[in-house]
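thread from #wetlab-drylab

HS: before we spend reagent money on co-crystallization trials with adenosine monophosphate, can we at least see a predicted complex? here's what I'd submit
DV: go for it
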Amino acid sequence: MFNLILFGPPGSGKGTQSEKLISKYGLKHLSTGDLLRSEIAGQTPLGLAAKSFMDKGQLVPDEVVIEMISSALDNNPQAYGFLFDGFPRTTAQAEALDKLLSQKGTSIAVVLALQVGQNELVKRLLNRGLTSGRSDDTKEDVILARLIEYEKKTAAVADHYKKYDKVVYVKGEGSIDEIFDDLSSAIDKRSRA
Ligand code: AMP
């Protein structure tokens, strides 16, 4: 299997690049944000519980997202590999993911970390809010709360994977195709390694 994490703050382009990467590399896309939004749309108990955190720009509790990812892994036994987008977002999630993958005899091959400046992130998120239909993209205070959660809890996930020399930084500003080319060459180097 070939599993990768597309890592970066909200607005760094993970969703856009994920779509292109899964079609080039034949990976199964697992976005916890998308999974949670579909739970909300289905008005499930999990969705209703998650919504109150998401509306405030806070992270949903670890056990909720870990359980969701665990079921998604079990439900896709034939996958050639997974692209994790928006997960893991805490060190506890990273440790749980490593354990789940090792139980399946596999691991994370590479963590691609998109780097985008703070002003550009806010601009992109507000702009996305005009069309995304996501309420967490329209309110500047919620956007800032998400960026603070990222610094406080999520940035440490890169440190976790740095210990295993798995992190590759990629500039997330420029054209979509340029960024995609940089991500692709980072993957190609790792998959040959
Ligand atoms: P995203 O679509 O990745 O920007 O996620 C939207 C919101 O869903 C986040 O602001 C969190 O409230 C929640 N969320 C998504 N993924 C996670 C995760 N791995 N851990 C905790 N909360 C998450």
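DV: The chain has eight helices and five strands.
HS: ok that's useful, forwarding to the group
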